[in-house]
Amino acid sequence: MALLDESASGVFVIGVTPFTDDGALDLDSTDRVVDFYLERGATGLTVLGMMGEAPKLTAEESRIFVRRVLARVGGRVPVVVGVSAPGFAPMRELAETVMDDGAAGVMVAPPASLRTDDQIYNYYEMVAETLGAATPFVLQDFPLATGVQIAPSVIQRIVKAIPSCVMLKHEDWPGLAKIAALRAASDRGEMRRISILVGNGGVLLPEELSRGADGAMTGFAYPEMMVDVWRAHAAGDIERAHDLFDAYLPLARYEQQPGLGLAIRKYVLARRGAIASATLRKPGGKLSQADIADIERLIARQERRLSELG
């Protein structure tokens, strides 16, 4: 598998980690959900992300799970692995393992302790040193989860100084102006142009694409939404992209509920046959019968609207 680079585009689906009803890793469902994502047009996969329940896995489980994903993908698309960790020793250990196994790159989010621009820059300098120049990495910019605000000027500084930073996972919110600022900086030759893939469940995807994003790196129970919106936008059919997005938006919005979002996503993925069980490893949210009724209503309305759009 080729290594991740600045040209990456499309939809890198953030994959769920399937568990059995009793909370054990479900490797058969891991194969099934990988097939599900690829059949729906994913151009890449990202595993052990925040919505992949990575903190709930042991180090050995993480290695087993990533190896299973990589084996099932079989080099068809690049796989990025989240290696964020409290310290650099476990980050290095996991990164070396997954890269040796065939990952295309790794993703690192900043720790919540970072407060100043210099602290953020110095941290990513140490990340690059820890990973080594041969390991490309994704800078995950998710202030709502990490509490770390990274200004466009800091991202520019990191990109200019650290060649192994090849992608920004943009999850700032509001953040459309940040995408535009980074694209303007690279257009002016002030920084290297890197790939920008967006998160937050894709709920601003059409607007983010119009501001210069190259695609999405996030999860949703209907990953084909992101793929079809990206393809329509890339073909210049902006109205079609918005029409498709609008059909899925009510469910995407519902899935963005803090604390329940992953439970909703896994419920729908199980309903669609992508995984055998909707189980989250504890601690995790749990759906009520009223929640499930909401989801079923939203899916029925979504299906009617998609039928109308053809």
Automatic annotation (TrEMBL):
Organism annotation: Chelatococcus composti
Enzyme type, top EC level: lyase
UniProt record similarity statement: Belongs to the DapA family.
Superkingdom assignment: Bacteria
Annotated pyruvate binding sites: M217
SMART domains: DHDPS
Gene Ontology MF term list: 4-hydroxy-tetrahydrodipicolinate synthase activity
The protein, known as: 4-hydroxy-tetrahydrodipicolinate synthase
Any Pfam family matching the protein: DHDPS
Listed EC numbers: 4.3.3.7
GO CC, alphabetical: cytosol
